[in-house]
Design a protein that fits this description.
mainly alpha, Fumarate Reductase Cytochrome B subunit, two-stranded antiparallel ribbon, 7 helices, elongated, heme, metal-binding, transmembrane
Length: 203
C-alpha cells in the first residue's frame, strides 16, 4: 500500500517515467523558438497586407516579416535534425486512428510549410529586386538573377502557402485546446519548460 512519503517523494522509477513522458530540452527550445518566429512572421505579414504599397510602415513591417522568415529558414534544418535524433515518441500513443493520422498530417504539413514559405518568400524578393534584410544587421545574398516570372511565381506560391499555414497553425492550436480543455491530458504540459529545481517535489 502506498504511503504518504511514497506519494510525495518521487523515486528513480518515477523520475525516469517523467523523463520519458516529456520532450527533451532541445526539442522544447526549437518548438517554442519556431512558434515565436512563425507567429511573428504571420502577424507582421497580415498587418502589412492591410497597408497600401509605398507606405513606410508597410515596408518596415515587411522587412521584419522577411527577417523572421529567414530566421525560420535557419532554424528548420537543426530542428529536423534534433527531431530525428530524439526519442521517436513521447507519452501514450493516440488510441483513435483518425486523430493520430490528423496529428501526423498536421505536423508534416507544418514542417513542409516552414520550408516552403521562406523559400518562396526569398524567390519573390530576390528575383523581384527587393531587399533581403535581417533585422537591419545585414542583407542576405541574392542567389538568383532578377526575373519577373520567377518573382511572380514565388509570390503566387507564397500567397497560397500563407493560407495553408494559417490553417495548419490554427489546427495545431485547436488541437492543443482540445487536449487541454476537453480531454484534460498532458499533451501541452509535456512541451512546456520544466521550471522546477531538482530538489522540488510535487504537491
Amino acid at each position: 500500500m502506498a504511503t504518504p512519503e511514497s506519494l510525495s517523494d518521487p523515486g528513480p522509477e518515477d523520475m525516469e517515467l517523467n523523463q520519458r513522458l516529456t520532450y527533451e530540452p532541445a526539442q522544447k527550445f526549437f518548438h517554442w523558438a519556431m512558434a515565436i518566429v512563425v507567429l511573428s512572421a504571420i502577424a507582421l505579414g497580415l498587418w502589412s497586407s492591410f497597408l497600401v504599397p509605398g507606405d513606410p510602415l508597410r515596408k518596415a513591417l515587411l522587412d521584419l516579416h522577411k527577417s523572421f522568415g529567414f530566421t525560420a529558414a535557419a532554424l528548420i534544418l537543426p530542428r529536423i535534425i534534433c527531431r530525428l535524433m530524439s526519442r521517436a515518441s513521447v507519452g501514450q500513443p493516440e488510441p483513435n486512428r483518425l486523430f493520430r493520422l490528423a496529428a501526423h498530417g498536421t505536423h508534416f504539413g507544418l514542417y513542409a510549410l516552414m520550408i516552403l514559405m521562406p523559400v518562396t518568400g526569398y524567390l519573390f524578393s530576390a528575383a523581384g529586386g527587393y531587399s533581403l534584410p535581417w533585422f537591419g544587421l545585414f542583407h542576405w545574398p541574392r542567389l538568383v538573377d532578377e526575373s519577373k516570372a520567377m518573382s511572380l511565381a514565388g509570390k503566387w506560391l507564397h500567397d497560397k502557402g500563407a493560407w495553408l499555414i494559417y490553417a495548419a497553425v490554427s489546427a495545431h492550436i485547436l488541437a492543443v485546446i482540445w487536449h487541454s480543455v476537453f480531454r484534460r491530458d498532458d499533451v501541452l504540459w509535456r512541451m512546456l519548460p520544466d521550471w522546477r529545481s531538482d530538489d522540488e517535489t510535487p504537491d
